[in-house]
Amino acid sequence: MGNCCSDVGGGMAAVSGAASSAATGNQNDAVDMYLRSHGIHGLFSQIELSFSATSLRDRDVFSKSDPMVVVYIKERDGAINEVFRTEVVLNSLTPTWIAKYTITYHFEVVQNLLFKVFDVDTQYHNVEMKMLKLEEQQSLGEACCTLSEIVTKPNRSLTLDLIRRGESVSSTHSQHCGKLTVHAEECFSSKSTADIILRCIDLESKDLFSKSDPFLVISKLVESGISIPVCKTEVLKNDHNPTWKPVFLNIQQVGSKDSPLVIECFNFNSNGKHDLIGKVRKSLADLEKLHLGREGENLYLPTLVGHNYENKILNSKLLVDKFSETAQHTFLDYLAGGFELNFMVAIDFTASNGNPRLPDSLHYIDPSGRLNAYQKAIYEVGEVLQFYDADRRYPAWGFGARPIDGPVSHCFNLNGSSNYCEVQGIQGIMMAYTSALFNVSLAGPTLFGHVINRASVVACDSLSTGAKKYFVLLIITILDADKGERLESTTGCIASRDIVQFVPFRDVQSGEISMVGALLAELPTQFLTYMRRRDIKPST
């Protein structure tokens, strides 16, 4: 994968717990396997959903309905799980509920929600909410949407038509079921980031002929007692009194300011077997107190004494030179400000894919309807990104093929047009891809430059008009390996940002990883890096 650091230099880079580090120009945008193996990747936010309704059906004889909202999560396998119930609002056809549902927003996941509104019968008003039997209540209607559809609205409010089960959306009856409005608010803790500068003094030497090469790993403790790394500093060579570059911790990511953290100081070894120099256990609130009091905290080292481990207090100390909290603009703030993600796709039509008419080809169109590897990539990535593109018109290209009676082309419009490259919707990409397979001859070699240049032109044209768009190019191909290094031009110029995410087909096909999760989890962070480095702020 493109963001993994497989070399010694990459392993010595910092890994931040929050995307805000990119704005400072530090090397905290490196992401190494050490953190990934512990499940730290992607961007998430806590979202509060609130509910209101209008024009509900009146199902009571002598009074108005007493409505309640029940929220369900619809899983990919079709299972529906209840996750939340509001309170009951008495005698109202235009209720506004107070209880709010908190959900974790995952950019790379299509989170399907189902809302059902019930009229709670009077005889059950004294029954505890979670004990109510829903089959004994009258249905006022239901509606469904994805979480992405809500958060991409400029005001983060989505109004849905309530329909009754068994009635079509277009029927006259469904028009009388009322409307449900779902409003999303990002929890403030999602925006709060702690900016911290840490240093140590009098570290013990772990190397025989030189000083130690120290770095810090900050981990959060979960309920099971396991520590999960969320941040690490860069390595400072030959330094027993190191001061590291600032680290940035999203307060929500670590739980809260009072959540326990373990800060471990290691001596770096190129073989990956780093020596523990010492550690402390402190919360963010504790670190703030250390900063205000200008005090240091002694490191300790678990030491085997007899058959038990005891914490040996060391002379080495951890000090906090800076501690400040800031509220950063989040990915969702930019969406609310009208920014979009525009999806582009380029497909490999080189002969290395195999004859499309044979079942062992990656381009084989199965008569049963089973998607091939290319179709699956288009569908699964497009399924996520489509909610962030208002017009859903996608540039789509092919490369490495020979059009009928023509030379090999390393960038041709997938729709067959010589004038425009866009298709409508994900289904439009799928249809253009299938059509292209019957109108070109697979050739080679595999060259990306032409489609990358074409995509860059599209992005530059959009930028010149002031459009609030961030472009995402999906290249579907076959490669042997990925070194995890930043792109380098033929002149040796290194890319300023690591914006390439490489996912091997073989890992996806074997079920080892999720294609969408691996490709898109870090896209919001890359987006924020771009915006913050250019000091682009969302409009209010």
TrEMBL record:
PROSITE patterns: C2
GO terms classed as biological process: cellular response to calcium ion; defense response
Single GO molecular function: metal ion binding
Keywords from the named record: Calcium, Cell membrane, Lipoprotein, Membrane, Metal-binding, Plant defense, Repeat
Membrane topology type: Lipid-anchor
Subcellular location: Cell membrane
SMART domains hit by this protein: C2 (SM00239)
Top-level taxon: Eukaryota
InterPro entries attached to this UniProt entry: C2_dom (IPR000008), C2_domain_sf (IPR035892), C2B_Copine (IPR037768), Copine (IPR045052), Copine_C (IPR010734)
Cellular component, GO, one term: plasma membrane
Domain C2 intervals: 27-160, 176-300
Annotated family: Belongs to the copine family.
Protein name: C2 domain-containing protein
